[in-house]
Structure formats: C-alpha cells, structure tokens
Design goal:
about 190 residues, four-stranded antiparallel sheet, 14 strands, binds 2-oxoglutaric acid, binds manganese (II) ion
Length: about 190
C-alpha cells in the first residue's frame, strides 16, 4: 500500500488476477450508455460510457441513470468484495473511457443516497489511467496510476473532504474501465418526499 495516501484511501495493486478476461466479458455484457450533461445551459455528451447496476435510478449532475442488469461476473466480484472487505454493496456504477479524450471532472460521490461517509470500492480494468484526489481546502493532491485489476477503496471523509477526477491524457491509450461498488440507500430519498 502507498505510504503517502491520505488515511481514507486504501490501494491494493493487482488485487484481481483475471483482469484481462473480466475486461473482455464486461465490455461485452454491460449495457453501456452515453448520457448528456447540461452545464451552463449547454448540453454535451458525457466524455465516457457508463452503466448503473442498482435497485433504483441514480441521479447526479442532471443525469438519470436507470438501473441495468448485473452481469454474472460483476455479481461474483461484489460477493468477493463483501467477503474480503467486510462491506456489502448493492450497486455499481461502471465507467468506460474509450480513449485518452474520455475523462471525468472533479467531483465527490456525495449524493444523499450514499450516506455521509460512504465506502466505495473501485476496480480498474484495461489500460492505465491517472486517478487524482484533491483535498477541498488545502488543495493537496495525490494520484494513482491505476490499471489491470487494481482495487482502490475510498472510505470515511473521502467524499466530504476531497474531490476526485480522471483527467484526459494525450498518451496513446486503449479502453479503460472502472467499476465503483457502492451502497445506495434509495429509502433515504423516498422518506423525505
Ligand atoms: O474512473 C474512476 O476511477 C473514477 C470514477 C468515479 O469517480 C465515479 O464513477 O464516480
Ligand atoms: Mn466518483
């Protein structure tokens, strides 16, 4: 594990052995979608493909992610995470960065349905990508060059005190996939209506 990580992030390089096979299976079996994002009155397609596996829709940044079915390989991975981390996950947001122009801007996974201190387990497949974490007030940054089978776990104040991003790159890169397992509490939203 990296010595210079903030305490709320754990990094397990090469956690998954059969990452190549899983990448091919999930690229084919996940129901990938491309959403549109409205920013400052302009509607643009998101610079990546996504899919949401969960019980109910997940809304953020004006995007509505309707749930899509769990491929068997993804359900097995969720079970392995539960056994090894001792944390249950009921949903997964998958991202596919097709080339270096695909990216994700700085944000925190701080929607109310995720709770105040969510544990998010992120698995990387495919080519490597930089994952950057920035402390909200000090501006201090950390980055990880994530690739095939790496596991990164964000916990505790990782979403309240930090933002994270996947920047674009001019490096020639092949497709890169990220699977973020979460616990999504839809009732929190419904009971407040
Ligand atoms: O690709 C990544 O590692 C970042 C994904 C992410 O932040 C998200 O899905 O919310
Ligand atoms: Mn995120």
């Amino acid at each position: 594990m990296r010595q210079d990580s903030p305490g709320c992030v754990d990094y397990y390089p090469g956690w998954l052995e059969d990452a190549d096979r899983l990448f091919a299976v999930l690229q084919d079996q996940i129901a990938w979608e491309r959403h549109e994002l409205t920013l400052y009155g302009r509607t643009i397609p998101t610079p990546r493909l996504t899919a949401w596996m969960g019980d109910t829709a997940y809304r953020y940044s004006g995007i509505v992610n309707e749930p899509t079915p769990w491929p068997e390989a993804l359900a097995s991975l969720r079970e392995r995470l539960r056994q090894e981390l001792g944390v249950g996950f009921n949903s997964c947001l998958a991202n596919l960065y097709r080339d270096g122009t695909d990216s994700m801007g700085y944000h925190s996974d701080n929607e109310p349905e995720l709770g105040p201190r969510p544990t998010i387990a992120s698995i990387s497949l495919g080519d490597r990508r930089w994952f950057v974490l920035r402390h909200r007030t000090s501006g201090k940054r950390w980055s990880w060059d994530l690739g095939q089978g790496d596991l990164l776990v964000m916990r505790n104040e990782s979403q309240s005190d930090y933002a994270h991003a996947v920047p674009k790159t001019t490096r020639p890169v092949g497709p890169r996939m990220n699977l973020t397992f979460r616990w999504f509490q839809a009732q929190a939203l419904e009971s407040s209506r």
